[in-house]
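Below is a filled-in request sheet from our internal design queue. Each sheet records the structural input a requester submitted and the sequence that came back. We keep these sheets so that new team members can see what a complete request looks like end to end.

REQUESTER: design group, bay 2
PRIORITY: normal
MODE: inverse folding
CHAIN LENGTH: 125
BACKBONE (tokenized):
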């Protein structure tokens, strides 16, 4: 029973992290494509290029390592959010408000990972 739940969580985490890496790659790529129109500060440009390379390469190098995928996702997310919050501190409030759906999503993913193929586990049955 434990291996069934474990493999269920592995699938949920695997597909979720790959979808998130795809979204991050598209966001960073879009931001870099507009770098010629709206000039990025040099440090942002360097971090964005490194983050984009890491995210693209992580589809290959991190396919069997969950910790690498999570670290790359965290780094790529930080390269997008931290400079924005430092330059415009008022953007911190909408970001904190955005945590509510993220918490709900994490809760739902955990609930889905615990649900077996026979439905939810019920004690005493």
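RETURNED SEQUENCE:
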């Amino acid at each position: 029973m434990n291996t069934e739940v474990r493999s269920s969580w592995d699938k949920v985490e695997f597909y979720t992290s790959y979808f998130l890496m795809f979204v991050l790659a598209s966001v960073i790529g879009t931001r870099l494509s507009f770098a010629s129109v709206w000039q990025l500060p040099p440090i942002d440009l360097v971090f964005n290029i490194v983050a984009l390379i890491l995210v693209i390469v992580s589809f290959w190098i991190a396919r069997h390592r969950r910790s690498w995928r999570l670290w790359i996702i965290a780094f790529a997310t930080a390269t997008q959010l931290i400079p924005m919050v430092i330059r415009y501190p008022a953007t911190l409030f909408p970001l904190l408000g955005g945590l509510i759906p993220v918490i709900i999503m994490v809760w739902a993913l955990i609930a889905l990972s615990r649900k077996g193929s026979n439905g939810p586990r019920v004690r005493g049955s």
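SHEET NOTES:
- The chain has a mean pLDDT of 83.
- The chain is about 80% helix and 0% strand.
FILED BY: M.R.
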